[in-house]
Write a structure and sequence with these properties.
Elements (H helix, E strand, L loop, with lengths): L1 E3 L4 E6 L2 E6 L4 E5 L1 H11 L4 H12 L3 H17 L3 E3 L30 E7 L2 E7 L4 H10 L11 E8 L2 E6 L2 E6 L2 H16 L5 E5 L1 E6 L2 E6 L6 H10 L3 E5 L2 E4 L4 E2 L6 E4 L3 H4 L12 E3 L2 E6 L11 E11 L6 E5 L1 H10 L10 H12 L3 E6 L2 H14 L1
Helix pairs in contact: 2-3
């Protein structure tokens, strides 16, 4: 018999769907209306057989189809540790907090291996990063801030990034802050710490893996996985007079829900160099980094940051380069947008907090959202411009 691990789960109703906040894994999961029903039946203590019978009756489908559907859901929920077998349920699921063990199990590492020291200045706030130059992911962090590197400042906080025993570990001023096997989680935590340091009076709602540009007072955020063409599109928009607000991670402020411009470098993958070299002749002279097994060059966006003002989000646009596809903007629901953001690892803090998740969902429900497929950059720029001028 399957049993839900509801003691570590918080439920948030979002339209007709259910958003599950799993405190044990610090993850969000979106359930559609039929999956929500199955979840509720399991939560009421119904057996597997009862749930299958109820699903078949409710949707008037063959029992065999209902059984397949329940099995798929259960397999997914096992994977997300939302479900345990009744035999396992005697041992309660504990919070999977790698950081709970920080005090009791300090990590041993050779400090002499940390052979690279960099200092940066963001919002007039200096901070440093100490790492090994062979740590490719730490080098990726450096490349994001390399254009704001300084040599005559005393840092207010010293960060250290190490990789040991399959964990990425973040230290600050000699004390361990955070560890995780996924670098994106550590990166999100580090950027959040940098933002807290640089903007001490600001609370943060989210950091979206996205690019953001503005035209006047209107800003568009374009979330997408790496390799979908968002940075290439950003570079093209900047040459058309748009203002740069950020690439890779876009921070959203609590309360106002405004974007705070984050001056990270613009990452351009090898496949896009030939598309942009006439606009950015310096591109071919920049050093090449390896990011996620891809060659990348980083453009300094300083000259394109025309505003430091915090701006509201006019639209969320989910771009994807697709050869041969004419530029097409299509409205999507907040549900579809949320699923894309979850898959794209939106960062809402670690640990996740109920009030943050609730505020984020309310904010998202009021933002126009679009899918966006494009091939030709000129067409893509025209579509984005039309969108901003219409809203």
């Amino acid at each position: 018999m399957n049993i839900l691990t509801t003691s570590n789960i918080t439920e948030h109703v979002f339209e007709e769907h259910l958003v599950l906040l799993n405190h044990a894994t610090n993850q969000l999961l979106l359930l559609n209306p039929s999956a929500r029903l199955v979840w509720q039946w399991f939560a009421q203590g119904h057996s597997d057989e009862q749930v299958i019978e109820q699903l078949a009756e409710f949707f008037n489908i063959p029992r065999s189809i209902a059984e397949q559907d329940v099995k798929k859901l259960c397999d997914n929920w096992y994977q997300h540790k939302l479900l345990v077998d009744s035999v396992e349920s005697e041992t309660p699921l504990m919070l999977e907090d790698d950081n709970a063990a920080i005090v009791s199990t300090p990590v041993q590492f050779d400090t002499q291996s940390l052979n690279t020291y960099k200092c940066y200045l963001l919002a007039n706030t200096p901070f440093s990063l100490h790492f090994n130059d062979k740590n490719g992911l730490a080098n990726q962090i450096h490349s994001l801030f390399a254009h704001i590197e300084v040599h005559d400042q005393q840092p207010l906080k010293n960060f250290t990034l190490i990789h040991v025993a399959h964990k990425h570990i973040l230290w600050a001023d000699g004390s361990e802050l955070f560890r995780d096997s996924l670098f994106e989680n550590v990166k999100g935590y580090l950027v959040h710490e940098i933002l807290k340091l640089s903007y001490p009076n600001t609370e943060w709602l989210a950091m979206i893996h996205a690019m953001a540009v503005a035209h006047g007072e209107k800003a568009v955020v374009m979330p997408a996985p790496s390799g979908y063409g968002k940075s290439t599109l950003t570079a093209a928009l900047l040459k058309e007079g748009y203002s740069y607000l950020g690439d890779d991670m876009v921070p959203i402020q609590r309360g106002t829900h405004h974007i705070t411009p984050l001056l990270t470098s613009l990452s351009i993958k090898k496949g896009s160099w030939h598309l942009l070299d006439t606009h950015y002749p310096e591109l071919n002279e920049l050093p090449v980094y390896n990011s996620r097994k891809r060659d990348v060059r980083y453009l300094n966006p300083s000259r394109y940051m025309k505003t430091t003002a915090r701006l509201p989000v006019s639209a969320l646009v989910f771009p994807r380069y697709q050869a041969g596809q004419s530029a097409t903007l299509k409205p999507i629901s907040a549900i579809e947008a949320l699923q894309c953001l979850i898959e794209n690892e939106v960062w809402l803090g670690n640990p996740l907090e109920n009030d943050i998740v609730s505020e984020f969902l309310i904010w998202l429900s009021g933002i126009p959202c679009f899918s966006f497929y494009y091939d030709e950059l000129d067409q893509a720029i025209q579509k984005i411009s039309e969108l901003l001028f219409e809203n």
